[in-house]
Design goal:
It is built from ten helices and 18 strands. It is α+β, with helices and mostly antiparallel strands. It folds into two domains: 169 residues, no CATH class; 198 residues, no CATH class. The radius of gyration is 20 Å and the shape is globular.
């Protein structure tokens, strides 16, 4: 293991996660399924990610005394719950057995748990929180951010870093940002967004969206996950919110899928908070239509985010692309984990470049927060 990677791991565990000797650390990654169709470049990245995750766990064990590594076959999509084996690694055998005996585990894994079942699961987990790991570093390709698994780890006080689609090279680019400066920038922008009731977004490629924010609170993801129950992406750097369901209207012109530039743009027509039509000949259009056919909730406009990381630059990797300073991203599907009401095993982000973002205040005043990708606050 190179010294550079050792230092990257040390910064991850100590600066971002605030790990102390003896704390229990869980690092996990996922394996490429046999039925996945992926490019050679993405296969290489995912194999490097798996290897790096195992090395991170090894470093954590050698340095802090108590770290484990778990791998499992990749889920069908970001936002889908990870398998029972990971739940047992994070929560311990007793908690998972209690969830199973109460008839809650299967609904949790299927993302069909009722409010009563979720409350019961939270009670079981929090009452036995001493059995739950202290720190989770999620280096799986598919995101576990928008899952009950992640929410329950946080409910027990665990700190959770989610790094979906991560490329180990990011340890030497967007992960080397000045975290204190990024935190100040992110907080300042979140305060401005939270003054608004509606957000308007336009971009040079034809995207034109109006998004309702009333009653919803924008949060900042600054990469400093040192407090009990902390959660965020790494690399970090965004302000994000769950739009009020049913309020989003307009046109989204997609130029990038999560891990590649599209051959031709795909246009999404949005009405009443949902994608109502997909236009375009690019294969990604058919992929989205198939995902929408799985369930109507996948059409939901789930998230509006604004990038704040000045060291992020890669447009071909959604994890870093959505953090690029001066970009915005809009997600589809699940938003139940950060203030929304839609629960579905799907969450996918799309980044838009050189946006102009205008906040509309309760009295109708308009304030430009981004102009052609330049931050104005």
């Amino acid at each position: 293991m190179s010294n550079d990677l050792n230092e990257a791991f040390r910064s991850l565990f100590e600066v971002n996660m605030g790990v102390k000797t003896g704390e229990r650390i869980l690092v996990f990654s996922d394996l490429i399924r046999g039925d996945e169709t992926i490019s050679d470049a993405d296969r290489d990245r995912r194999l490097r990610l798996l290897d790096t995750a195992e090395k991170a766990a090894s470093f954590g064990r050698e340095t802090y005394g108590n770290a484990i590594f778990v791998s499992f076959l990749a889920t069908q999509a970001s936002g889908a719950e990870p398998p029972e084996s990971l739940w047992r690694a994070a929560f311990g055998e007793w908690i998972v057995d209690q969830l199973k005996q109460a008839g809650i585990l299967h609904p949790l894994l299927a993302k069909t748990a009722s409010t009563v079942q979720l409350d019961r699961a939270r009670k079981i987990v929090t009452e036995a929180k001493a059995q739950v790991v202290d720190v989770v570093v999620a280096l799986s390709n598919n995101s576990t951010s928008h899952t009950r698994f992640r929410a329950l780890v946080n409910a027990a006080g665990g700190r959770f870093a989610s790094l979906p689609n991560f490329d180990p090279e990011m340890f030497f680019t967007s992960m080397r940002v000045d975290w204190s400066v990024l935190a100040d920038r992110t907080e300042r922008l979140a305060q401005e967004v939270n003054r608004a009731v509606t957000i308007e977004v336009t971009t040079p490629n034809g995207t034109n969206m109006r998004i309702g924010k009333e009653e919803r609170v924008a949060e900042g993801d600054d990469g400093l996950l040192t407090s009990p129950g902390s959660f965020g992406n790494l690399p970090a750097g965004e302000v994000y919110l769950a739009p009020l369901e049913g309020t989003s209207e307009g046109i989204m012109v997609l130029e990038y899928a999560p891990t590649r530039k599209l051959a031709t743009p795909v246009t999404l027509m949005v009405k009443g908070g949902n994608v109502v039509e997909v236009r375009g000949d690019e294969p990604h259009a058919r992929k989205l239509e198939a995902k929408f056919a799985e369930g109507p909730l996948n059409r939901n406009i789930a998230e509006l985010g604004i990038g704040t990381n000045d060291r992020a630059s890669r447009p071909d990797n959604i994890l870093e692309a959505e953090k690029i300073l001066g970009t915005i991203h809009i997600a589809l599907g699940d938003n139940s984990g950060f203030g929304g009401k839609v629960s579905t095993p799907f969450h996918e982000d799309y980044v838009f470049y050189k946006p102009t973002l205008t906040a509309i205040m309760p009295d109708g005043e308009k304030k430009v927060l981004l102009e052609d990708g330049s931050l104005k606050v």
